[in-house]
Amino acid sequence: MTGARTGLQISFHKLAGTLALVALLAGCQASETLSDLSRIDTAQGSAENIGSLTAVIQRTPNDPEAYNVRGAAYGRAGRYREALEDFDKAIALDPGSHRAYANRALIYRYMGEQQKALADYNRAIELNPAYDTAYIGRGELYRMAGRSSDAFRDFERAIQLDTADPRAYHRRGLLYQASGQHQYAIEDFATAISLAPDQPYGYNGRGLSYLALGDDENAFADFNTALRLDGEIAESWANQALVYEQQGQMAKAAKSYSRALQLDPEYAPARDGLARTRA
């Protein structure tokens, strides 16, 4: 794309020709984690913390924010039904709580109830049109459904609201990357990294765009940084392996692909890469 960035190109051209680009297509579907839970950073999923939050509710049973925070804790713990009950209670006590709607939307997403999630994100935005978290959540819902233009608009809106949430830049970067606009993707990943330098996802995303542009050195540096930050992510090991494979170091590539499969036996890029390098 040339000139100013006015939106995402709708016709995504096919990326082909090298192993790097083949892997890139698979890597664009980054999974979310429960750290996205509407940025209630005080809510942790430990039994001890949930117990403390329950004690707060017992003292103040009509405080909607108490239910909202405990619901986030339940969500982080994977206790989705209990999380929904708390967000329902928070909304009943305060029907204007845009945070509770956005929190409940995320739980619905994890439970596969996408239409309910969309309705809750829409309601959160209706209640607070400046709530960046709801735009980011709805944008990811659209992105995973293949509605790339709608997703792009939501991420763009969050960025226009001066969000400090790295997910907006990371997700927009994934969309640029999927359409082959790698320079723009690299810029967005770099911003995401600056906002969350201790998270590996921006490094993995930027590394793949570097690799697609033929910059193996910077790609390898980014993948190794991602591994240094968190060595338990299959994508990072498969990305590192891809560089080794492109360099003809098949034994090293196979070892990294094997490690990726140990972490996630269903990760197709690692499975396919291991088959290639062992052959």
TrEMBL record:
SMART domains the record matches: TPR
TPR repeats: 64-97, 98-131, 132-165, 166-199, 200-233, 234-267
Record-linked Pfam families: TPR_1, TPR_2, TPR_8
Keywords: Repeat, TPR repeat
Protein name stated in the entry: TPR repeat-containing protein YrrB
Organism: Nitratireductor thuwali
Gene name of the encoded protein: yrrB
